[in-house]
Design goal:
- This protein has helices at about 5-10, 15-65, 70-80, 90-105, 115-125.
- With about 150 residues, it is mainly α.
Length: about 150
Amino acid sequence: MDMSKSINNKLEFSGAVYQQITQKLSVIDSFKGNWKAIENSDSKYLKELRKIATIESIGSSTRIEGATLTDEEVAKLLKSVKITKLQSRDEQEVVEYYEALEVILENYRDIKLSERYIHHLHGILLKHSHKDQTHKGRYKNLSNQVVANYPDGT
């Protein structure tokens, strides 16, 4: 069969068949629109879940190190971090942790886990901390304290 002849042939349908084809295409187009709406909706929920997980992770991890910010305070700080001057050690730790976590989440496919990369992440974790500049991006030579603070302050 010569393809060039068949390509040039125009398909002709009866009115009823043409109407059925149009209806089927309409259903497909409607499905495509609904699918895009579902994809956008799921993406919104996934972004919200990531935000919640990030805030809770940052709050928990920095509290282990003695920070006192609640998850709500962490969320508020992260919303205003671009316009806020970091006043306290707690604020510095939250922002540093967030920045390191973002680097990991955005690059996890390409990260080659190595001692050098871990030191790089450690440098990000201590970027804003004036107190920790002596060991930023290197092994710490001093012991580390893990703190538990109870609601009454003890």
